[in-house]
Specification:
The protein is mainly alpha-helical and 231 residues long. The protein folds into two domains: 47 residues, Orthogonal Bundle (Arc Repressor Mutant, subunit A); 142 residues, Tetracycline Repressor, domain 2, CATH 1.10.357. The chain is built from nine helices and no strands. Helix 7 packs across helix 8. The protein is elongated and about 65 Å long. It comes from Nocardia terpenica. Keywords: DNA-binding, Transcription, Transcription regulation. This is HTH tetR-type domain-containing protein. InterPro entries: DNA-bd_HTH_TetR-type_CS, Homeodomain-like_sf, HTH-type_TetR-like_transc_reg, HTH_TetR.
Length: 231
């Protein structure tokens, strides 16, 4: 049975993962095995994943592999965890670069920067993400969740810096609208990244999508800011 990403910090997944190594050489070996697992998954899919295949790919003995991982599901979970962390880190980095390019321009350019950052960050891991999400659909949420949270946080900051509603408005409704629309943005860009589109087509789609969502958000916030909060 394939397991999803654990939300606990002790890295005990897949029916009891081995304890994380702390020595540099052991950490390097563990990372080597996780990278080999990602390569096997990308090339062979989940059905082709086995401890023997991963050990051979990593250039270690099967006995060495079992010092770090219990079984193939434990390996799968390690790749899921690492991929999610890499996507989040790359999203943060790419967005910083793209947002710097859009600084001082209309807010829609900043929203587009968010969408393109999601697209680029996920696209870098397309092959393995396809396998991870095909095997367990809920893994999409686990991989995307942190990026959705960051997207909502950034979008909220952007809109409140550009739109200054009066004091008598429903902040809860504004937050809900922003969370919903930014969630749609992150999810749509995630799906674009893992499907077989050309880069040009995907980027054009992101521009169209972000322009549309910007209009929705701007109109919604304008309406909310001109209607008093309800008791």
């Amino acid at each position: 049975m394939v397991v999803g990403l654990s939300t606990h910090g002790d890295d005990r997944r897949g029916g009891g993962s081995r304890r994380r190594p702390v020595q540099a050489r052991a950490l390097e070996t563990r990372e080597q095995i996780v990278e080999a697992t990602a390569q096997v998954l990308a090339r062979e899919g989940y059905d082709g994943l086995s401890t023997n295949a991963v050990a051979a790919r990593a250039g270690v003995g099967v006995g060495t592999l079992y010092r770090y991982f219990v079984d193939k599901d434990d390996l799968f979970s390690a790749v899921l965890s690492r991929t999610g962390a890499h996507i989040q880190t790359r999203f943060d980095t790419i967005f910083m670069v793209r947002s710097a390019d859009s600084e001082g321009r209309e807010i829609r350019h900043a929203i587009t920067a968010i969408g393109l950052a999601v697209l680029d960050a996920v696209s870098e891991h397309r092959d393995v993400v396809q396998v991870l999400t095909q095997q367990v659909s809920s893994n999409s949420n686990l991989l995307l969740g942190p990026v959705e949270d960051a997207t909502a946080r950034i979008t909220r900051g952007l809109y409140f810096s550009h739109h200054r509603p009066g004091t008598d408005y429903d902040r809860g409704v504004v937050d809900l609208v922003i969370d919903t629309v930014s969630g749609l943005l992150a999810s749509a860009c995630f799906k674009l990244a893992v499907t077989d589109h050309t880069t040009d087509t995907a980027q054009k789609t992101v521009h169209i999508l972000t322009n549309s969502l910007n209009h929705v958000l701007t109109h919604a916030i304008h309406q909310i800011s001109h209607h008093p909060a309800t008791e």
